[in-house]
Structure formats: structure tokens, C-alpha cells
Amino acid sequence: MSEETTGAPAGTPGVAGLDLGAALEAVLMVVDEPATEEHLARILERPRRQVADALRALADEYTVQGRGFELRLIAGGWRFYSRPAYASAVERFVLDGQQARLTQAALETLAVVAYRQPVSRSRVSAVRGVNCDGVMRTLLQRGLVEEAGTEPETGAILYTTTNYFLERMGLRGLDELPELAPFLPEADAIEAETLEGVPSFDPDAPDTDADDTTTTEL
């Protein structure tokens, strides 16, 4: 294969000729979201199974060596993360005294979206009993929820959680969310209440959750 087709300078090995483990480390150092095995295999011109085995070998190697970081499979892809044992050091460096927190209202709203998705803002507001427009905007800005089409019956925008939500929660998928059934009212009862008539909220009206000052780090 010529230099023109590989894009590599003369005397430099092509991607397929690089040490796979080192190449994976180099790529994963610059990703801003988990990289899938399929994507990595395509970029590095290797079989997916070979890449998957190399990723797991690297993850095991870092664990055996007791490194301050680890390679984890999260939200369908691989990415480097600091090891939990060193969370206090990382937190002190990154935050430097400034805590990025979500209010209790935002956390409650995020929980409703996570367990009822796809769900409209009016349904979320009905479940919580207060106007959630303000906190939904906050969750959208944080990248924790996203728009996912509209509700056929009403045309209302539906919302779901994002891959970033899974990353922050340390989950591989929504099926790993803890079971809440024992702590929630029956779904039929909730649906009956919401179908009786959900109040119409003005998106520009002051958010009634604004007075909720309880904050929790996410």
C-alpha cells in the first residue's frame, strides 16, 4: 500500500502495522466519549475480536499493576477513567473548591425521565406534582437528557436519558438501573392520574423548583 493511500510519511508503519495495544492506548487517550469496538477496529484496521481481546487484556493489565486509571466498558464503548480509589485526589484537582451540583429537584426529575422514558415534560411534571420546565432545561444543558421525537397523541416532545448519563452513573445500559418497583405506586395509578388532565405549564413561567436549594453532586 502506497504512502498516498495510507497517509503515513515514508518510513512510518501504516496503522495496521502498529502495536495494537499501544495504538489503542493512544486513541483512547484522546476520545471524548466511549469508543466502540467496531469503531476502533475500523480505525486500526484489525478484526473486531482482536481489538476486543486487546482491550480486555489492557484493562486486566492496568488492574494488576494497580494503576491510577482503568479502562472500562461503559455505555457500549471503552474509555479511560480514573480509578475510584483516587477519586478524592481527582475531585480536589478538577473542582478546586467549586462543586458542580444538581439540585434535589433536578435529580428527582432525572430519575423520572430515566425510569419512564421516553416521557414528555408534562408527564414528568404530573409525576412530580410541580412545574419541571426549568429543571428539564438544566438537564438538557448538562447533556443528561435529550429530545427523542414526539408523543403521537399530543405532539409533545419526548425526552430520554443520554449516553453521558450512563457514563456519569457508571452503567453499561438502562437495564442496569436499580429496581424501583417496591418504592413506586402502581404504573396504572400514575397513568390514570396523568390522563385525567395534565395542567398546562408556561415554559417561560418561573420554575417552582427554583426555591429548592438542596444540591447533590453528579
Distance between the termini: 48 Å
Q: Strand fraction band? A: 5-15%
Shape designation: elongated
* Helix-strand sequence: HHHHEEHEHEHHEEHHE
- CATH fold field value of the largest domain: Arc Repressor Mutant, subunit A
Radius of gyration: 22 Å
Number of helices: 10
Tell me the strand order in the biggest sheet: 4-6-5
Number of structural domains: 2
Reported for the largest beta sheet, the result is: 3 strands, antiparallel
CATH first level of the largest domain: which class?
Mainly Alpha
Query: What's the average pLDDT?
Result: 80
Q: What is the structural class?
A: alpha+beta
Name the CATH superfamily assignment of the largest domain. Winged helix-like DNA-binding domain superfamily/Winged helix DNA-binding domain
What is the helix content? Answer: 40-55%
CATH architecture of the largest domain: Orthogonal Bundle
- Unreliable sequence segments: 1-12, 193-208, 210-214
The total strand number stands at 7
Tell me about this structure:
Strands 4-6-5 form a three-stranded antiparallel sheet. It has a two-stranded antiparallel ribbon with strand order 1-2. It has a two-stranded antiparallel sheet with strand order 3-7. The protein has ten helices and seven strands. Mean pLDDT is 80; it is low at 1-12, 193-208 and 210-214. It folds into two domains: 3-92, Arc Repressor Mutant, subunit A (Orthogonal Bundle); 101-217, Winged helix-like DNA-binding domain superfamily/Winged helix DNA-binding domain (Arc Repressor Mutant, subunit A, Orthogonal Bundle). It has 218 residues and is an alpha+beta fold.
